[in-house]
Design goal:
Blueprint lengths: L1 E4 H20 L9 E5 L2 E5 L2 H7 L5 H21 L3 H15 L6 H22 L6 H11 L4 H14 L4 E6 L6 E5 L1 E4 L16 E10 L8 H12 L3 E6 L4 H9 L7 E5 L4 H15 L4 E7 L4 E6 L3 H16 L5 H16 L1 E6 L4 H24 L1 E3 L3 H9 L5 H4 L2 H9 L15 E2 L4 E2 L8 E3 H19 L3 E4 L3
Parallel strand pairs: 4-12, 7-8, 8-9
Antiparallel strand pairs: 1-17, 2-3, 5-12, 6-11, 7-10, 10-11, 13-16, 14-15
Helix pairs in contact: 1-2, 1-3, 1-4, 2-3, 3-4, 3-17, 4-17, 5-17, 6-7, 6-13, 7-13, 11-12
């Protein structure tokens, strides 16, 4: 065990922050460079900041601690909004490097950072605009797919069809082409009961040719699930169990059979009260009399049913019933949102984007970009958009009276500017309006189609401040490798 104090603790942490920040910044923007990663499974070429952050490590455990703090916020940003990991990492690096030399007390720095952050988030929220057209979707998708117009068009068309509350997933294609498959299905806001059900490198559990069993009572004894387990085995299906509560002995039994007799997963029934009954009814209608579907994807927070055998007549009746509910009076805001999401599930179903390529390396690189674009479009639909290319934060620095974040939040724009090979400029002149770093022209970011989701920019900045604060206020590091 090794215990480090003050500068001896903080210096290696800062070294780690610089290392991961520099590696991730390599990929930033339209002129960013690829990163080649060599691991046990082979070569991975990517421009995805989250992927780069995942593989940065160091032999010195004290330096690794700094890397891991930033790695955690990269993962958190990707988990929260699916994109913005590079921006979060760059901002965290700049905060740490800029303020680590300050003579102010760390707690005073933390208070000031928090005050500045509130001002910037309020400014961004006030200046965001809502997405209203398919063209807006195309702009966000294309930009997040590293300015690939073909992938951007595919993703925007997909979201335009399934709608704001529809579900979009991604898989590898069996050939070289990119395509999208639409199927009957729905998504619920409830995930796996145990992370031990995960069976993919995406931290998801994926079941194929699935029998779905829905229980209204708590599952506490093995005999309650024996019949449905035997049915799944006899029919050579994988099994998904939904129930209000599931005892640990049942979960253990299913996990023991995982990969041998029966591939399975358990999920707690979604919703509460009458909303739970309504959602379970929607699941049963979507699955049809057979209570089966082609595929189920379960994450920590959601379960998506794909390729279900819904009866079209019953489906249309459900749509008309929900429309009738929404046209009536007396619904609360929550009830309106709840029924609109139900309607979107029946209308749009589930879309699966199939990513193809000529090699495994190409497919992996393309999947990184598609994943970012899917998440960015979802975030833009949920929270609106801002000028992209670091300009939203640039405007905030210009218009607000900030104490510590003034120059720091200009960093994303500065990096993009330098990577475009441009000379130093006075940012308070004409370039405050906006700049297209791909075509090297200045102008209005909205008109040029360079926009970022508000939620991505906001979350990246918030997570960066949180991570940097942990480093700046650290007084002791304990390294126990036993």
């Amino acid at each position: 065990m090794n215990v480090l104090f003050d500068d001896n603790a903080k210096t290696p942490l800062i070294t780690g922050v610089k290392l991961i920040g520099d590696a991730v910044a390599t990929t930033f923007g339209p002129n960013g460079k690829n990163v080649i990663i060599k691991n046990r499974t082979g070569i991975h070429v990517t421009k995805d900041g989250a992927t780069v952050a995942k593989y940065v490590n160091h032999n010195d455990p004290a330096i690794s601690m700094g890397i891991d703090v930033i790695k955690d916020i990269a993962v958190k940003t990707a988990k929260d909004v699916g994109d913005g990991t590079t921006t979060a990492t760059i901002l965290a690096r700049e905060i740490v490097v800029s303020l680590s030399k300050s003579s102010k007390h760390p707690i005073e720095i933390l208070r000031t950072l928090t005050d500045d952050l509130k001002k910037v988030v309020h400014y961004l929220d006030k200046n965001k605009i809502e997405i209203s057209t398919q063209e807006d979707l195309l702009k966000v998708a294309t930009l997040s797919a590293n300015n690939d117009p073909i992938l951007g068009q595919l993703i925007s068309d997909t979201y335009y069809r399934v709608g704001k509350d529809g579900s979009v997933n991604m898989e590898e294609s069996s050939d070289i082409n990119n395509s999208v498959v639409f199927s009957n299905g729905l998504q619920i806001d409830s995930g796996f009961s145990s992370p031990y059900f995960i069976n993919t490198d995406k931290n998801t559990c994926e079941l194929n040719n699935v029998l779905v069993a829905i229980f209204n009572e708590k599952l506490v004894e093995l005999k309650q699930v024996v019949e449905v387990c035997n049915q799944a085995i006899d029919e050579k299906k994988e099994l998904l169990i939904l129930a209000p509560d599931i005892a640990s002995n049942i979960i253990r039994m299913l996990l023991l059979n995982k990969g041998s007799q029966l591939e399975s997963c358990t999920v707690i029934n979604p919703g509460n009260g009458i909303y739970r009954d309504t959602l379970l009814g929607d699941i049963k209608v979507t699955l049809g009399n057979t209570m089966t579907c082609e595929k189920v994807i379960i994450t920590k927070d959601t379960t998506t049913f794909i390729g279900c055998t819904i009866d079209e007549t019953i489906k249309q009746k459900k749509i008309e019933s929900i429309k009738s509910l929404l046209s009536g009076n007396g619904l609360s805001e929550f009830e309106i949102l709840f029924h609109k999401k139900r309607l979107a599930n029946y209308y749009g179903g589930v879309a699966t984007i199939l990513v193809g390529g000529y090699s495994k390396v190409e497919v992996l690189e393309k999947k990184d970009r598609v994943e970012d674009a899917i998440a960015a479009v979802k975030a833009a639909l949920d929270g609106g958009v801002l000028p992209g290319g670091g300009v939203a934060l640039l405007h905030a620095a210009r218009d607000l009276d900030l104490v510590l974040l003034d120059k720091i939040i200009q960093t994303p724009f500065n990096i993009l500017w330098r990577s475009a090979g441009q000379p130093e400029i006075n940012l308070k002149n004409e370039f405050w309006n906006g700049y297209d770093f791909k075509n090297i022209v200045n102008g209005d970011m909205y008109e040029m189609g360079i926009i970022d989701p508000f939620l991505v920019t906001k979350t990246a900045l918030e997570n960066a401040v949180t991570a940097a604060s942990l480093i700046l206020t650290n007084g002791c590091s304990i390294i126990n490798m036993d």
